Amino acid sequence: MPIVGRTRFLKEFPAALHEGNAAVFIGAGVSMAAGYPSWADLLVDIGEELGIRTSDIQDLAALAQWHILESGGATGVRNVIKKEIGKNRVVPETLEILARLPMRQLWTTNYDRLTERAFAAIGRPIDVVAGAKDLSLKATPGAARLYKMHGSVDRVDDIVISTDDYELYRSRRGAFTTLLQAHLSSLSMLFVGLSLTDPNIRHVLSLIRESFTEAPPEHFAVVRPPKRSDFASDDEYQARSAQHHLWTKDLGRYGLIAVEIADYDEVPALLREVERKVAAMRVWVSGSWPLDSPGSGSSELYRLAEGVGRLIGMAGRDLVSGLGVLVGPAAMAGFVDSLRDGGGWDVDRRLIVRAFPQALAGGSADKTHWTALRTELARLSGIVVFLGGAKRDGSNIIAASGVHEEFELARAAGAFILPVGATGGTAKLISDELLGSAMPSTGAAALRPTDKELKALADPAATGEQLLSLVADILKRIAKA
Asked: Rounded to whole angstroms, what are the CA distances from 413 to 125, 265, 416, 447, 469?
């Protein structure tokens, strides 16, 4: 993979995601990786009826057009698409990760329902826009939008398949063109699964070219070069490799930066790296403290948590919270207060909350559900600040086992662990465990404060202002790294 393309991608695209300025275009390669046929394979039988081998023709849309003319209608082609694309294949990890990323605009020329199923699997709402009339439908609050610009397998009577469909696209689906061009002009778009042999791509690239401006946002195309195993002969492989090399260079004409991979199997790892970089811009404040414990330092802990929340907001990071007793609400109060100067208009994007359902009197908490929520919070967060972490056990205050579970999950997710040991409870236990540990504490790979910082954060004589100053310095250090 070219270093320049990868470096720019891993710097620019996560930042666009964090700022709410990113979109994705899902190409045929993603569907093929899930087991769906390529266009050439899909139309093999159609070609045989006409005495044509799909491997001998580049313009597969023309092949569909010829079959429609010869048969007197599009029923045959549509039936093939319904039969082959209507099957439920296993959702690939690539789409599972894309469904988790904080973007609201997704585009595809694929007919299948893989993306919709990936969103449904995590309970995330998505509005599907498969026809021009769908564009006017009222959006579901909080939902992402999937623009299936060439239609969907569940509406095969309204899909783009032939030369006629492409040539008359503007008159039949012109609203898609206008909206795609608007997104290309204002958002950073990631193209995944682009293929030189996909007839849809020429159409999409022509639309990009029309919307190209002097200073477009950064767009990225994850592309896979041809492999020798893809072809029957060395000559065919060499010819296709040469075409791919020239095509990849030509993508720059459309404002696309090529990010090459050796195989589609590498895409999930690349996207997981993007996911962690987005998470690094989010801070989870974990902790708790009994509210009915006068004289136990709960008021001091509240003020400290409030200050940490304010620091996070002022640093331009997002706040993640599980609404733990005392700590979570305090951190949220400080965070929201820090956004007041700007009107707080982006709080819906920057505040991520997962409330833990509490058991009613006489009932018991759903610990499995709680673990699932904690796992999600750990995945969403690149930094976790631990404050307190205690609960009442009869007349005693003991360390909260749930907060320690959050520590274990955050560590497993690769988050930076920042315990303020001076606040006691589980935070002190975590601090003691990290002190002198083999976890890296400096550089870009740091996962914990240095021993010197841990000791300072655990100093019982430190004031709230001193602890806040230490936390602020550590957050700055991580940002620079």
From this structure: 25, 21, 9, 11, 27
